[in-house]
Design a protein that fits this description.
292 residues, alpha/beta, Rossmann fold, eight-stranded mixed sheet
Length: 292
């Protein structure tokens, strides 16, 4: 194993820029060992150098590269993480984004749904043994899985079970993104229910409208919206993510939705636990068709 067995380990996806980079930097400065995941090689190299410089006592940062549009790549990254450590205290599923059109990946999935929902689903599943291992001898509630969703979930009236990925009925990039962000909340609620007995807590948050490269692949509507919006620095939601990762307040009653360190209520469809359970089952079925 590469990491110190006596210091906490976090995995942060989307750590090469924006919220993920800021979150990884803050945790490393607090003395955490952070395994980051990014896609762009140039941004990854810059983030790795900058975050390493901010390390506090015991802090360390390792950057891995992966394309989270592809579930085979998510599995590869998970394997690389297990080669670095035998336990993970906090998994922050931050990576995601919006596209400008319907894009079908080489695996046959729709890219927005794949990167925003399927990738964190697979990574969480693959790293579950490391999360469970961390609960042994740890403070109850300190092992956590945190998802980054969005108030964009309010655009969705519910998961379309006949076209879960918006493959055949792609209405707009924004609608596809809203459905994927709804899936983040439903996934977190079902995950919280499934892992409560293992001593793992799952929470989800809305970051706000953030000044980042989030919409760089979005359509004209999304890019115009971001350009005119009253945005916040990535450091603001990163503060909330670090709070969700470390504060005792967040280590109980899993499945809650937060913004700016305060619990908020998502929409009624996001609180539908029957839909949450079905989403889990349908996601497993979909992944099985991919051989994942």
């Amino acid at each position: 194993m590469e990491l110190d067995a006596n210091s906490p380990v976090a995995v942060v996806t989307g750590a090469s820029a924006g919220i993920g980079k800021s979150t990884a930097g803050k945790l490393v400065a607090m003395g955490w060992q952070v395994i980051g995941v990014g896609r762009d090689p140039g941004r990854c190299a810059i983030a790795e150098a900058e975050i390493a410089e901010s390390a506090g006592a015991g802090g360390r940062f390792i950057m891995l590269r992966g394309n989270f549009d592809l579930m085979a790549d998510v599995q590869r990254v998970a394997t690389e993480i297990t080669e670095l450590t035998d336990r993970v205290q906090v998994l922050i599923n931050n990576a995601g984004g919006v596209r400008d059109q319907r894009i079908v990946t080489t695996e046959g999935t729709e890219a927005t749904f794949a990167a925003n929902h399927l990738a964190p689903f697979v990574l969480t599943r693959e790293l579950m043994p490391l999360l469970v291992a961390n609960t042994a001898g740890s403070i109850p509630g300190s092992t956590r899985v945190i998802a980054v969703s969005s108030n964009a979930h309010k655009m969705s009236r519910g998961i379309d079970w006949d076209d879960m990925q918006s493959l055949t009925g792609f209405r707009s990039a924004a609608a596809a993104y809203g459905q994927a962000k709804l899936a983040n909340i439903l996934f977190t609620r079902e995950l919280a229910r499934r892992v409560a007995a293992d001593g793992i807590i799952a929470q989800v948050m809305h970051p706000g409208v953030v000044a980042s490269n989030f919409a760089s692949h979005g359509d004209e509507y999304m890019q115009a919206h971001m350009a005119s919006a009253d945005t916040v620095s990535p450091d603001e939601p990163a503060e909330t993510l670090c709070w969700l990762a470390t504060d005792p307040e967040c280590g109980h009653n899993g499945g809650r939705y937060f913004h700016r360190k305060h619990e908020e209520q998502p929409t009624a469809v996001a609180l539908d636990d029957v839909a949450a359970a079905r989403l889990w089952i349908e996601s497993e079925k979909l992944l099985a068709t991919l051989g994942i």
